Amino acid sequence: MDSKSNWRMAAIVVIAAFLILLTYILRSVLLPVLIALLFAYLLDPVIDRLERWRLNRSLAILILAVVVLIVVGTLGGFLALQAQQEMVAFYKKLPDYLNRIQTDFVPWVETTLNITLPHTMEEFAGELRTNLLNIDPASLRPVTTFASKLSSSTLALISSILGLIIIPVFLFYFLRDWDKIMTQVLALIPLKQRDYVLTKAAKIDEIVGAFIRGQLTVAITLGILYSSGLVIIGLDLAVVIGMLAGIGFIIPYLGTVLGIIAATVMALVQFGIAWQVLGAWAVFGVVQLFEGTILTPKIMGEKVGLSPVAVIFSLMVGAKLMGVVGMLIAVPAAAVLNVFINEALARYRQSDLMKERELNSDKTE
Predict the structure, then answer these.
(1) Which among 163, 178, 209, 223 is positioned nearest to 64, based on CA atoms?
(2) Who contacts 328 (Cβ-Cβ below 8 Å, separation ≥6)?
(3) 234 φ/ψ sector (left φ>0, alpha ψ -120 to 50, else beta)
(4) Alpha carbon of 62 to those of 70, 175, 176, 181: distances in Å?
């Protein structure tokens, strides 16, 4: 690898690092723009197809928006109705669940952990009142700190809601002018590097597209399978727990863990220590086995190219840097980074330094 290539690679790394840092600093402002860009990237092929039917691009965007609203509204309405029915049934059975906790679980916890717990709501309220009166004022500092953080979080939530309102506006203009934007971006790339950039862009497009479409498809499928399995074993809130676990799969591993915990707690409260607890575990175990061996390999294959350890590490980094949003984009971002890491390693293996080391190693042997 000559010095010119070294400088070019170094310049790319520096520019990429600067852009990532700038994005992180301005993340709250740029987030609606980035979300709109992501959806524009996903929906542009659909708009291009509609244009082939001799539709005006703006009209095609409007038609797509109406279709999406109808589909999402219909499915969302059905799921909301089902969830409402389950929540009403759960509310009616709530006194029975509380009674089961007091008669079955409280004695078991007392015996197992050798502690004393309140057996009635009156006892619980009395102990709570006594404990509140005996609280040291100094110990309330974390509470006041939390309250101030909650206040700032509320303002952040309002800002996020306003951002969500702006996203459709950005999305319309990005979709309408997508081809122009891509042409202008391409014009900024020198002719000598254009083929290289287009090749890498095609690879990244393949990875990111496969991941996003695959995750959405797998998440919806898992939600249906989880819900169906939990309904079969007679679990209350089966559809709510199943669909939330499926949607949570968009962030790898998160939905499964939360779903297992929620289903286990619900089974214990509803049935006690019975076969339904094992049934809930079996539902998640069988569905996860199906997802790992058949569903995900069939839909996404090996295009993302990340090991489970790399996925978990990228999720931890994403959560640390940008919270939930960081977890959402962590895996595709890591997959894109992996493309450049693999290329850098390949260039290093072909470099004069590596060849010199191999030559010296052969001489030593």
Answers:
(1) 178
(2) 250, 251, 318
(3) left
(4) 12, 11, 10, 20
Q: Same domain for 225 and 281?
A: yes
**Backbone angle region of 100, left / alpha / beta, with phi > 0 → left and psi within -120 to 50 → alpha:** alpha
Angstrom distance (rounded) from CA 98 to CA 62 = 50
Distance CA 141, CA 151 (A): 15
| Residue at 154 is within a domain | no
C-alpha 147/C-alpha 157 separation (Å) is 15
Encoded tokens for 231: 């309904």
| pLDDT tens digits, one per residue of 228-250 | 999 999 888 888 899 889 888 87
Domain containing 314: what range?
305-365
Tokens, residue 223: 């939600």
Is residue 314 within 8 Å of residue 334, measured between CB atoms? yes
Which of 250, 264, 196, 190 has the alpha carbon at shortest distance from 220?
A: 250
Confirm whether 37 is domain-assigned: no
CA–CA separation, 294 and 269 (whole Å): 33
- pTM for the predicted model, two decimal places: 0.65
* pLDDT tens profile 259-317: 999 999 888 888 877 788 899 999 999 998 888 788 877 776 566 667 777 777 887 88
Look at the block and give the residue holding tokens 């989880």.
226
- CA-based nearest residue to 266, from 249, 285, 242, 250: 242
Number of folded domains that form the chain: 2
311 lies in the same domain as 270: no
Domain membership of residue 228 (yes or no) is yes
**From residue 93, how far is each of 1, 86, 237, 242, 281 by CA, in Å?**
71, 11, 12, 20, 23
Contact of 171 with 39, CB cutoff 8 Å: yes
Helix residue ranges, H only, 26-140: 27-51, 57-100, 106-113, 121-133
Q: Is the dihedral of CA 180, 182, 188, 190 positive or negative?
A: negative
* Spans of the chain, pLDDT less than 70: 1-10, 27-28, 104, 106, 108-110, 113-163, 300-305, 324, 352-365
